[in-house]
Amino acid sequence: MSTSQTNVVEFAELARALGAAGEQSDRLMLAVNAAVELIPGCLHAGITINRAGECHTLASTGEILSAVNVLQNELGEGPCHAPDREDEVVQINDLVGDERWSAWGGRVNGDFQLGSMISIFVYTARGSYGTLSLYAAAPDAFDADDLATAQALAGHLAVALAAGREIEGMSAALQSRTVIGQAEGILMERLGVDSDQALAYLKRISSHTNTKLVQVAGDIVRTRQLPEAPDRSIG
């Protein structure tokens, strides 16, 4: 079985497990454990919620995530600390060399021997937001495929939480934009096109198959395969 086929099966199993989980805490733990299992190099994963500029750990694969969030609060900086964060995805390829949160990144590297991380919005609401955060030991540990997998995980978790009505005010549009943007990135790489051409391609597939645009994009992100199109040319 190919890697893409394996990911499809694993995501299908995860979706069923998330839907069947009775408690929010169970869903969160399923997601963070899946991140470590599905993404090579990911040593630690967690769900962080920011309430009024304070980081709180809702679920994690170990104690390090809580300690990392405590550092964000103590130092007053970090990817999940800003109450007005707008970036849906924050990727730090080198925690020591990144200048945005240099004090925090240096401490995380020195105290916990971590070199890179990814933080992705799971939901946004008035006065708070939640993220899926992944950490690796080495710098530049996460590639484009890892980011795509992490975004798909965040999307699955967002849908499961929304279905369970555990988080009020979740922005479905935010997750749609994230998934569509990642699909555009895959098309840009595979077909050698710009973002406008990639979006036009997605819309053409959506219209031809009578499938919602976000579903077309989600299938591309999950499988890393391009769908059959009535016209493979881009223009």
Automatic annotation (TrEMBL):
Q: Which UniProt keywords apply?
A: Kinase, Transcription, Transcription regulation, Transferase
| All residue ranges annotated as the ANTAR domain in the record | 160-221
GO MF assignments: kinase activity; RNA binding
The transmembrane residues are none
Q: One Pfam family name from the record? A: ANTAR
Protein name (database record): ANTAR domain-containing protein
- Taxonomic placement: Bacteria, Bacillati, Actinomycetota, Actinomycetes, Propionibacteriales
